[in-house]
Design brief:
Layout lengths: L7 E9 L2 E8 L9 E7 L6 E8 L8 E11 L2 E10 L2 E10 L7 E7 L7 E8 L5 E7 L1 H4 L3 E6 L12 E5 L10 E3 L2 E3 L3 E7 L5 E9 L2 E9 L8 E8 L4 E7 L5 E7 L7 E10 L2 E4 L9
Length: 295
Amino acid sequence: MKRSEINIRDPFVLVWEGAYYLYGTRGPTCWGEADGFDVYVSRDLEDWDGPHECFHNDGSFWATMNYWAPEVHPWRGKLYMFASFKAPDKRRGTAILEADSPLGPFRPHSDGCVTPGDWECLDGTFYVSQDGRPYMVFCHEWVQAADGEILAMPLQEDLTGHAGEPKLLFRASEAPWARSVRPVNGLPGYVTDGPFLWRAADGTLQCLWAGFSEHGYTEGLAVSDNGEIDGVFRQVKPLFDRDGGHGMAFRTLEGRLLLALHSPNHTPDERPVFIPITEKDGLLTREESNSHGQL
């Protein structure tokens, strides 16, 4: 099937053994009951084979709704899926699943959610520090925090749970472009979605994330001042501000750098979009000749 036919949110691309594996939130079941995730496979980013169900709740898994934002990362010879889940009697959070193949089947690995149990959290991503320590970077959701937060939390080496307390990296309102979507407990509500860490060739560490600007859903960028997860993150120019977000960066098999995000941001029209980007002075930026384009 063509990329334009795939209705997913929160696209994530794993480049693995000569092929592209595309994961995301199923469009039709995004906002209610859900029971699994799919993967699509391609060699050219345009024609895709699938969907192939890579995780299915056979009734033994705790979550029944809001299956969101699956990401798949290699670690210690296995593949681990970080994904967000919710149940009527449990707060939303990110759990970790495990598989031997990008096609799955993925199996529950962590003991429930790794994010704090009394927080509404989502969109956990995997990060490994330069000295080899694993972290989860995730959002403390604006529906509870009001001013949405992005935090980093150390993980145990086997990724079954956390190994320390979360550290705040930044809040949504720190971005000059951020706009409130609606009040939360009398406070302005600023969204943080979809963090993703990218290290440039010169060592610059940056965090892609999504929120809302005056132009709609927006893919922002924050940069660490010391090149590590414990640095002070400053907000820079957004990567995309035309009703698209929850992005990640990856290199194609030919070495080209692309930004993946979903656009538009309204159901049921969400589609995966790939936008050419480059590194300029250590920062991710849109290619000048493709400032409004996509593959």
